[in-house]
Amino acid sequence: STSWARTHEDFLQCLSLHSPNTTSISKLIYTPNNSSYLSILQFSIQNLRFTEPSTPKPLVIITPLHESQIQATICCSKNHGLQIRVRSGGHDYEGLSYVSEVPFVIVDLRNLRSITINAETNTAWVESGALIGELYYRIAEKSKTLAFPASVCPTVGVGGHFSGGGYGALLRKYGLAADNVIDARIIDINGNILDRKSMGEDLFWAIRGGGGASFGVILSWKVKLVVVPSTVTVFTLDRTLEHNATNLVHKWQYIAHKFPQELFIRAFVRRVNSSQDGKKKTIQATFQSLYLGGVDKLIPLMQESFPELGLTKQDCTEMSWIKSILYFHGFTNGEPLEVLLNRTQTSVLYFKAKSDYVKEPIPVTGWEKIWKKFYEEEAETAQMIFSPYGGKMDEISESSIPFPHRVGNIYQIQHLVYWLEEGEEASKRHISWIRRHYSYMAPYVSKFPRAAYMNYRDLDVGVNNKLGNTSYAQASIWGSKYFNNNFDRLVQVKSKVDPGNFFRNEQSIPSKEW
Ligand code: FDA
């Protein structure tokens, strides 16, 4: 409407007034009139559900080169009643970094992605717009025995990933990415740039797992690098129902969280064809592992604790930690390490995902019932991914950072369904399947609250009001699932640092006074 066009104009004028170097900011601003607007918008979108013509689009996208341009954007958005969405890697499962139903501006941090590794102090400064694969690559450039415990997928952005927890195959040895953050720089609601010392321990606590988007714009993180052996061992083994999959998954639940911290074995299940004509189906469990050591130690360890899997030396490959990153991402054909620097995701799909935490092993009869759900038509591309906890995760207290899912959680489940067909119909069918599946899983997973992982964002677990105030009670519906008892402290921090609730979205921490 004309009034929004007006705001839009005023906003752009405000930006140029607040930017010391006007010519440079104008090149970093994209509006729908700009021919590259759509490609800039779609560049890092990971979920095709949010690329539809009907998906709400930003009035403006800004791709800052300087921190002052973010300060200007915060100031002008505030003055003109626009919401801002900050995007680092664009991997948000519900598109919250680039979709909003109220008039909004995207601050896209793709240009702010420098990485400085200090191999003497084993630390690194990483700007939020860097991808985790770029960080891994830069670490490996400096050292064969340093690493960082974060995402399995290298295209995830550091900005969202660290602020929501962040885990990968080093989880049992070193915990989450957020557990290994030791400093950060953030722009607050008043445009001030703060570091750990000037932001104080409360805000520094909140942004390590509580989601950055509620508190400001995180510019960069300082992280502690961790030590890995120069040789690690990986394997991937598939077992169908005809080859004992049910019992293997069942047994895995009792042992995967108790293995030595050096051993991480995750499991996936999905439906596959068991006859060439595709008429017969079965369930396949895949066991995929990273062991921080050589194969000669791994084999006896497996023979003692998980002999049923039948792991042999031939199933295993020894490699460097950085190669294991490629391996876990499916690059197993000798691709160069430089693929980690590639910001474009190889295949982007429509998907919907959910998460759960398991405290007691699911009985065999439970698994047999769950497999039946996977034979339903819509479950053709459905998966459950099980990530073992225990080890270091048990040693870190529930309130150390906002991420609360520690001792007592034996593994995490990610439920996932993806599809390729365009249009409402396909989307409805698959989303409805995963919702039914999620309800069906209720007896087997954590309860009161039914816990969820914030980085696997799921708006089905509860949302704020899109317009107007959201009560504490309403926000705690989703807040307690992601943060359990830490939700209250997050609300306190939010009320202090952003009482007017400027930094908000469908699942942002509410401020008390607002
Ligand atoms: P994106 O840019 O979409 O941001 C996510 C949220 O953080 C948004 O609310 C955004 O506004 C906010 N935000 C981003 N940058 C910010 C900043 N600088 N300051 C303030 N707020 C900011 N997770 C995991 O733990 N382990 C894994 O192995 C994987 N693997 C994986 C694979 C794939 C293909 C996807 C799509 C996702 C994952 N994830 C994951 C989940 C991932 O950790 C999660 O989506 C992160 O939030 C992504 O961070 P991005 O910066 O990419 O997201």
From TrEMBL:
Family annotation (InterPro entries): BBE, FAD-bd_PCMH, FAD-bd_PCMH-like_sf, FAD-bd_PCMH_sub1, FAD-bd_PCMH_sub2, Oxid_FAD_bind_N
Cofactors demanded by this protein: FAD
A Pfam entry, by short name: FAD_binding_4
Domain annotation FAD-binding PCMH-type: ranges: 54-228
Lineage top rank: taxon: Eukaryota
Alphabetically ordered keywords of this record: Disulfide bond, FAD, Flavoprotein, Glycoprotein, Signal
GO terms assigned for molecular function: FAD binding; oxidoreductase activity
SUPFAM superfamilies hit by this protein: FAD-binding/transporter-associated domain-like
Similarity comment: Belongs to the oxygen-dependent FAD-linked oxidoreductase family.
Protein name from the UniProt record: FAD-binding PCMH-type domain-containing protein
The species this protein was found in: Camellia sinensis var. sinensis
